[in-house]
Amino acid sequence: MTRVQIVDPETKKLEVIVEDSQLSLAIGKKGQNVRLASKLIGWRHRAIKSEEEKRREIEEQMTALTTAVTPTDGAGGCRTKTIEKIEAAGITSLEKLAGMTPEQLMEFRASAKRWWTNLSSG
Q: Which tens digit of pLDDT belongs to each residue from 19-60?
């Protein structure tokens, strides 16, 4: 066993992390070792996972956190016209806008200025 993590102390649920090579031994034939351990300690195992499975789970959770998308209309204080210009340039989230390089921002500014000039004169 590598690590035990308490998932919910009120319902006595825990998660056990074992080395990849020990996973089948920890579970036992038809889950017999898991059931025995649960009876002995009085806690239910939510899951028994290998280190690799746990690492993938954490990576997926981190990816979900970092790929959250905030629509451009969530930019407080921006006028509707400004948001329309941003979206017309293909910038559909605040994360995408924040990830732009200074050069990309300057190009966007120049494009927006040309677009506004054409719109005003047309």
A: 888 888 888 898 898 888 888 888 887 677 888 888 888 888
Residues 6 or more apart from 6 whose CB is under 8 A from it?
13, 14
4 three-state secondary structure: strand
- In this structure, the strands spanning 13-18 and 3-8 are antiparallel
Question: Could you give the CA distance from residue 50 to residue 16 in angstroms, rounded to a whole number?
Answer: 9
Given a contact cutoff of 8 angstroms between Cβ atoms, the answer to whether 31 and 25 are in contact is: no
| Residues 26, 31, 33, 35, Cα dihedral to 10° | 130
User: pTM of the predicted model, to two decimals?
Assistant: 0.44
Q: What is the DSSP string of 70-96?
A: -BGGG-TT--HHHHHHHHHTT--BHHH
3-state secondary structure 5-60: EEEECCCCEEEEEECHHHHHHHHCHHHHHHHHHHHHHCCEEEEEEEHHHHHHHHHH
